[in-house]
Structure formats: C-alpha cells, structure tokens
C-alpha cells in the first residue's frame, strides 16, 4: 500500500477524516497521502489550492506524514474522485461521514456511500467525531460462502501488513447452532489458511439483526476498524444495500473499510 487519497470539501467532517488519516499513517514514510479537492468552476481553482495547502500545513504541524495536494475541476464529485484513484493508482480512499440529520449528511454522506459503491479501490469510512485509536484489533466480516473466490485477500493483507493488528473474523447468522456444519468448517479452514500470518480468531454469532450484532461485537471487543466485503449475493448484500449501508455507517462508532470481492 503506497498511495491513499483523502477527499476534502471545506467541511469539518472531511477535515476530521484527513486528520484521522494523518494519525493513521504517521511514521509510514513509504505511504503517500493525497489531499484531494474537486471544484465545479474555473474561478474556484485558486481558493481550492490555497485551502489544500493550508490544511496540509496544519496537519504537518502535528504529524509526520508524506502529503501532497491535488485539486481538479470536475462536474461530478464521485466521477472525479474515481478518476483520481485510477490515475494515481491509489490503494485506498479515506472519507468522512456524518451521523447528523443535516445537509452535510445528505451531501457528503451520500458521496461517501456512492464512492463505496464503485469498484475503484477500498474505501475507509471515518464516522464523524470518532477519535483516532491505533489499529490493534480489526474485525473482518464474512458470510462463509465460497470464501476462496470471493475474499479479496491481497488488498486486505496489504492493509493488515501496514499495522499488524489482531484479526477477528466474524460471521452472523440466525441459524447457527451449537456446532458448525461441515460447510462452515471447510470455509473456516480456508480462511484460516488464507490469513495464517495474522493468527485469526473466529466468532460465530446467532443473531437476527446483523448490523446491530457487528456494532455490538466491535464495542465489546475493542475493535478499531471493521472490514466488510461487498458481494452480490450474501448477508453482506443485505447490509450494504443503500438503506442498510447508511444505517451501519451512520451508527458505527469505529471506521469501516468497504472492499469489493
């Protein structure tokens, strides 16, 4: 992982995400953090560049990170950000989201979820006002279905290698009983081998409300970040339909990284 883009839009939500990213990357001098801003009119170019340089200077007063700035004129925020990801070969986008019922939620929250729907690269969503904590415990959610073919292990490992956290692999299913089925045991074995370098711990929860279960587990285990895989057909699909994605990301107290299979 060597390039991370953090879009900012003059809002406190976005600047909080940028400062979170700076704390996250402090000391990782081989990772380049790009502060990105898109504007809609040519006359806004100078103000955009001044804003980015001022935010960069503010961050560098507190954190030792490698930062550059990028300002583009774009008709559509998400299209422009996706293009920047491709042109810079970015490995990750870090964005903020607000939990308030306000114009900020409608605009920036919507753009965050729209970006997460693209397949440009993983998107790390930072809830508003979430304090930074070192990445020591990571939860990976899994539906335990065809995991060898649907788990994007390389980008997940790239992220884990950066921070070397404890890995907790979690499955939520209302039909779990005392013992796992042969199918679940096989998938568990595949995942254990896939992430053997991280000594994963496995948890199987029999609950009906999946997003509530994930948040409860995160709180009880001191999880610092959740990784969720976006799949076409699975229990994750139920979570990350538009309405469920909003519910989980707006209610979560810890950052969530969304990644496509």
Main features:
261 residues, alpha/beta, 10 helices, Rossmann fold, ten-stranded mixed β-sheet, 2 domains, 43% helix, 10 strands
Coarse shape: elongated
What is the succession of H and E elements? EHEHEHEHEEHHEHEHEHHE
Per CATH, the superfamily of the largest domain is HUPs
Largest sheet: 10 strands, mixed
CATH class of the largest domain, please?
Alpha Beta
Q: Within the CATH hierarchy, at the fold level, what is the topology of the largest domain?
A: Rossmann fold
The first-to-last residue Cα distance is 18 Å
Radius of gyration: 18 Å
Number of strands: 10
- Number of structurally distinct domains: 2
What is the spatial order of strands in the main beta sheet? 3-2-1-4-5-10-9-6-7-8
Helix content: 40-55%
Percent of residues in β-strands: 15-25%
Mean pLDDT: 84
Structural class: alpha/beta
Task: Report the CATH architecture of the largest domain.
Answer: 3-Layer(aba) Sandwich
Number of helices: 10
Residue windows where pLDDT falls under 50 for at least 5 positions: 100-108, 233-246
């Amino acid at each position: 992982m060597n390039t991370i883009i953090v879009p900012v839009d003059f809002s406190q939500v976005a600047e909080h995400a940028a400062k979170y990213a700076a704390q996250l990357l402090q000391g990782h001098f081989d990772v380049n953090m790009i502060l990105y801003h898109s504007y809609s009119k040519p006359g806004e170019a100078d103000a955009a560049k001044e804003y980015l340089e001022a935010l960069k200077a503010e961050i560098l007063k507190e954190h030792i990170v490698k930062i550059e700035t990028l300002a583009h004129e774009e008709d559509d925020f998400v299209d422009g950000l996706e293009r920047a990801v491709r042109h810079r070969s970015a490995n990750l986008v870090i964005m903020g989201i607000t939990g308030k019922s306000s114009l900020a939620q409608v605009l920036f929250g919507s753009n965050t979820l729209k970006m997460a729907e693209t397949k440009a690269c993983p998107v790390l969503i930072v809830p508003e006002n979430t304090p930074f904590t070192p990445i020591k415990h990571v939860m990976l959610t899994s539906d335990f279905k065809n995991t060898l073919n649907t788990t994007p292990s390389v980008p997940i490992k790239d992220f884990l290698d950066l921070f070397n956290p404890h890995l907790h692999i979690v499955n939520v299913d209302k039909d779990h009983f005392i013992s796992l089925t042969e199918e679940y045991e096989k998938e568990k074995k595949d995942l254990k081998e896939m992430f053997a370098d991280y000594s994963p711990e496995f948890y199987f929860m029999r609950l009906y409300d999946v997003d509530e279960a994930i948040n409860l587990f995160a709180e009880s285990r001191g999880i610092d970040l959740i990784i969720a895989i976006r799949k076409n057909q699975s229990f994750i699909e139920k979570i990350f339909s538009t309405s469920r994605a909003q519910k989980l990301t707006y209610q979560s107290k810890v950052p969530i990284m969304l990644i496509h299979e």
